[in-house]
């Protein structure tokens, strides 16, 4: 398996620190609002990578943090006349509703909160101070970037560029404009904790270094997030972690591309800002997940009504294959699994794995599923053994599970009234009473059931 390492700007063979074990850390949300579709992309992509590692037999320890103390939380809590803690708890619950809708494996994810690690954060900063990488100015503690020769190695920027860069906030108190806050002095009305430097709260970057170290160790296998986090967040994580431990922080750095909205960058000012909750009111979130895995994770993708409708139509084609396989399994004659079917499924599985092994190429992995659907639709009929159908179904759904799709049941349960109309329509067609059959089709549509006449018999689905 080869992964594109942002640190080296090339694909590298994945070799875990411990055999058959993977330690992954993905930067999670600042929990002051609902997550947006841009947040959904890393959530889905790195959940898919975690699923693929499991598929390959790895034991995966996966961490996604919650930033529950931050300027955004403080300002939002003031606006809503609530506490930061109450605000954070509310949006953590909302986050889990959305990610469960996206079929993220939440029960297998560790979700540490920054406020749960204040003691570890203080100890970490104290260690940096003792090694002369941090300095205290009137209760504010900063990391001294000039002490590192390789600061900027992830974003490939030199220190002079970073000092003069527009993204660095100018602060006359800091020794150098590229220095960043590890501990912020208490301000009136803000949550704060006692520390050797006085009451205050942690800076943004320090929390991830501390939680990764305490939960996964000094060096982790994979650190992941959106490409917008490369600088300053991930750059600063590397600086502070490696300065304290003297060891590489992460062996592989993975970053996903951004989601554009109607070919424009998502922005509240452009009024094209969509939360996952907004999307869920109009579309099943499985469609959003499928849309995300249908593109390569490092490339930008364009979200629009048209692309979501296309994703929906494509997903339904894959569900039709699942529906057809179920029909064959329930209605076809028994028999052995055809050897040609076995060989064909080995070919499709290899196609899928080769795609995923090539830097998580989910787009080509999806193509492998469509090839299976095409094979079923073109070669299976009423004479195919139910065992052959069952074999393909098991293989097909195992691969789909890696992508986190096709988990819903098919051939929906329908009412006795609808079933009676379907049976009456079958009799009408047998008697060549096509006028009555058409009337019954219309009656079924009115109660939300669509029927399809195939060479293998009548199939139906709720609409």
TrEMBL record:
Give the EC number(s) under which this enzyme is classified.
Answer: 6.1.1.16
* Signal peptide feature range: none
Q: What single Pfam family name could you report for this chain, choosing any that match?
A: tRNA-synt_1e
Quote the InterPro entries the UniProt record gives.
Cys-tRNA-ligase, Cys-tRNA-synt_Ia_DALR, Cys-tRNA/MSH_ligase, CysS_C, Rossmann-like_a/b/a_fold, tRNA-synt_1_cat_dom, tRNAsynth_Ia_anticodon-bd
Sequence motif 'KMSKS' region, location on chain: 265-269
Residues reported to bind ATP: 268
* Record's GO cellular component terms: cytosol
Is Transmembrane set as a keyword in this record? no
What keywords tag this UniProt record?
Aminoacyl-tRNA synthetase, ATP-binding, Cytoplasm, Ligase, Metal-binding, Nucleotide-binding, Protein biosynthesis, Zinc
Q: Into which EC class is this enzyme placed? A: ligase
Compartment(s) where it occurs, according to its Swiss-Prot or TrEMBL record: Cytoplasm
KW Lipoprotein (keyword) present = no
Enumerate the residues binding Zn(2+). Answer: 27, 208, 233, 237
An example of a Gene Ontology BP annotation on this entry? cysteinyl-tRNA aminoacylation
Family as reported in the entry's similarity comment: Belongs to the class-I aminoacyl-tRNA synthetase family.
Matching entries from PANTHER family are given as:
CYSTEINE--TRNA LIGASE, CYTOPLASMIC, CYSTEINYL-TRNA SYNTHETASE
**Protein name listed in UniProt:** Cysteine--tRNA ligase
Organism of derivation = Dethiosulfatibacter aminovorans DSM 17477
Its taxonomic path starts at:
Bacteria, Bacillati, Bacillota, Tissierellia, Dethiosulfatibacter
Q: What is the gene name?
A: cysS
């Amino acid at each position: 398996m080869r992964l594109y390492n942002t640190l080296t700007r090339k694909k590298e063979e994945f070799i875990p620190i411990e055999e058959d074990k993977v330690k992954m850390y993905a930067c999670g949300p600042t929990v002051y609002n609902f997550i947006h579709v841009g947040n959904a992309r890393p959530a889905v992509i790195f959940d898919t990578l975690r699923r693929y590692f499991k598929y390959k037999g790895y034991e995966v320890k996966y961490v996604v943090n919650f930033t529950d103390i931050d300027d955004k939380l403080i300002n939002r809590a003031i606006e809503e006349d609530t506490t930061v803690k109450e605000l954070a708890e509310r949006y953590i619950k909302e986050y889990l509703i959305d990610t469960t809708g996206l079929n993220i494996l939440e029960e297998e994810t560790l979700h540490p909160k920054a406020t749960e690690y204040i003691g570890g954060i203080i100890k970490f900063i104290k260690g940096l101070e003792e090694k002369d990488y941090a300095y205290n100015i009137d209760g504010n503690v900063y990391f001294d970037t000039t002490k590192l020769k390789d600061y900027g190695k992830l974003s490939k920027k030199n220190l002079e560029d970073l000092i003069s860069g527009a993204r660095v906030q100018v602060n006359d108190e800091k020794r150098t404009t590229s220095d960043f806050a590890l501990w912020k002095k208490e301000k009136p009305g803000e949550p704060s904790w006692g520390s050797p430097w006085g009451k205050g709260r942690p800076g943004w970057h320090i929390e991830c270094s501390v939680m990764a170290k305490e939960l996964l160790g000094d060096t982790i296998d994979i650190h992941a997030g959106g490409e917008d986090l490369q600088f300053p967040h991930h750059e600063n994580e590397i600086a502070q972690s490696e300065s304290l431990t003297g060891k590489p922080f992460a062996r592989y750095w993975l970053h996903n591309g951004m989601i554009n909205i109607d070919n424009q960058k998502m922005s509240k000012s452009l009024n094209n800002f969509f939360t996952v909750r907004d999307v869920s009111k109009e579309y099943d979130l499985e469609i959003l997940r499928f849309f995300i895995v249908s593109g390569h994770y490092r490339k930008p993708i364009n979200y629009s009504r048209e692309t979501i409708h296309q994703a929906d139509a494509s997903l339904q084609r894959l569900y039709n294959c699942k529906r057809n396989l179920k029909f064959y399994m329930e209605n076809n004659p028994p028999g052995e699994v055809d050897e040609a079917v076995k060989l064909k499924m080995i070919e499709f599985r290899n196609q899928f794995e080769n795609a995923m092994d090539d830097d998580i190429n989910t787009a080509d992995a999806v193509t492998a599923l469509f090839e299976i659907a095409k094979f079923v639709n073109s070669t299976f009929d009423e004479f195919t053994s139910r065992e052959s159908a069952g074999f393909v179904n098991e293989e097909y759904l195992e691969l789909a599970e890696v992508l986190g799709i096709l988990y819903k049941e098919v051939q929906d349960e329908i009412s006795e009234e609808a079933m009676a109309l379907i049976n009456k329509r079958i009799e009408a067609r047998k008697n060549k009473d096509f006028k009555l059959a058409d009337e019954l089709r219309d009656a079924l549509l009115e109660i939300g059931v669509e029927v399809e006449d195939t060479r293998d018999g009548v199939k139906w689905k709720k609409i």
